[in-house]
Amino acid sequence: MKYCKNCLTPESNPGTTFNEEGICKVCGYYQKEKKYVDWDKRMDEIKEIASWAKSKSNGKYDAVIGVSGGKDSLRQALFARDVLGLNCLLVNNPPDIITETGRKNIENIQNHGFDLIKYYGNPVVYKKIVLRALKEYGNPQKPSEYTIAAIPIRVAINFNIPLVIHGENSALEMGEPEKFTTKEDLGGSAIGFANSNTVQGGKASDWVGEGVTLSDLLPYQYPSLDEIKASGVHAIYLGYYLKDFNSFMNAKLGIKNGLSFRDESLYDLGRYHRYSALDANINQINGWIKHVKFGYGSATDRASIDIREGKITREEGIALVKEFDGRCTDRFISEYCDFLGISVNEFNEIIEKYRGKMWIKDADGKWKIDSPIWEQEPVNKNTDIKKVIRRLNAELGIVQDIE
Ligand SMILES: [Zn+2]
């Protein structure tokens, strides 16, 4: 496998390409563009957008924010209200199986003093299309990508609320900056949100069939650009306007504002921190699935971000990836299979069909990645990942160990 020379993004990451120096697109963006942004000017721009929203809302809600209650959405809500002075309506699309941490965090964000709508899609329909997404794409999280994109803007249009505020432009962060349809998306506009990441311009009609009709799929249907333009609703990415909108800073602010973290072992989570993907275990399962499909998991994503942000060295990142990538406790998988009504064996058989070409069998017949980063760039044996994790946690003011 070929990896970015700066971060640890592998060539198997969908949408990733490397330049002549072997640098991935996201690192290129960080080095060439993000560094030279005039952040004061962007702050002025977002304040102008906020004034525009207030002038349009006629004293009703100014902005809609889709929230899970996690660190990013907590920061979005507090920033929109306390810095921009917006009257916000929060919208939460609860996951199929919410974690205790997720439940506490939604309560916490409400208790900061917000109106909040819980938008539940039809669970019978949801289960059917999750099974299809699992079988047809090896991605049970795909339907949720549709609702995350569609529900906030749908609520904004229906309630006549002028602005939708998203967090990070994840297409940019995760290495798919070309997945846009409008030029505006390369600024702070998020009206092309549904074209980013796994949805990639997908329509709710993709899921029609097996007893599911188009009218069952409203929470999945992102409005057309024509409908958005006619409604006058605007959508933005907060991450575009704020220099320090990143998961580390958001976690730090989250702690100050009552955010609850996970308490599982890091080996159960397949990550080296406990402050993301808090409300549902499907995220952790997906990290494992991604590892099977593409030869890398959630620890690689995190390490690549932390390397770019200067939080860890490349060598520390490699050590962390080797230790945590692709791990997910069986407990999460069996709980999810119970929800879907299939056996763990059936689930594993489906995922196995998607195993990527970077996997080979070792001498004992066990799957291993062909030439992983830690074989290409062996880690110094003095690199102590426990120390690295403690250092990162200390920066956040928390004391947590691996187990
Ligand atoms: Zn990179």
Topology, element by element:
Elements: H1 25-32, H2 39-57, E1 63-66, H3 71-83, E2 88-92, H4 100-111, E3 115-118, H5 123-137, H6 142-159, E4 163-166, H7 170-173, H8 225-231, E5 234-237, H9 238-241, H10 247-256, H11 266-269, H12 282-294, H13 298-308, H14 314-324, H15 330-340, H16 344-352, E6 359-361, E7 367-369, H17 373-376, H18 385-396
Parallel strand pairs: 1-2, 1-4, 2-3, 4-5
Antiparallel strand pairs: 6-7
Helix pairs in contact: 3-10, 13-14
The structure holds zinc ion (ZN).
Question: What report would you give on this structure?
Answer:
By secondary structure, this protein is α/β, with parallel strands linked by helices. 44% of the residues are buried. Helix 3 (71-83) crosses helix 10 and helix 13 (298-308) runs antiparallel to helix 14. It folds into two domains: 37-241, HUPs (Rossmann fold), CATH 3.40.50.620; 263-396, no CATH class. The two termini are 30 Å apart. It has helices spanning 25-32, 39-57, 71-83, 100-111, 123-137, 142-159, 170-173, 225-231, 238-241, 247-256, 266-269, 282-294, 298-308, 314-324, 330-340, 344-352, 373-376, 385-396; strands at 63-66, 88-92, 115-118, 163-166, 234-237, 359-361, 367-369. Strands 3-2-1-4-5 form a five-stranded parallel β-sheet, sandwiched between helices. Strands 6-7 form a two-stranded antiparallel ribbon. Strand 1 (63-66), helix 3 and strand 2 (88-92) form a beta-alpha-beta unit. Helix content is 46%, strand content 7%. Residues 177-183 have low confidence and may be disordered.
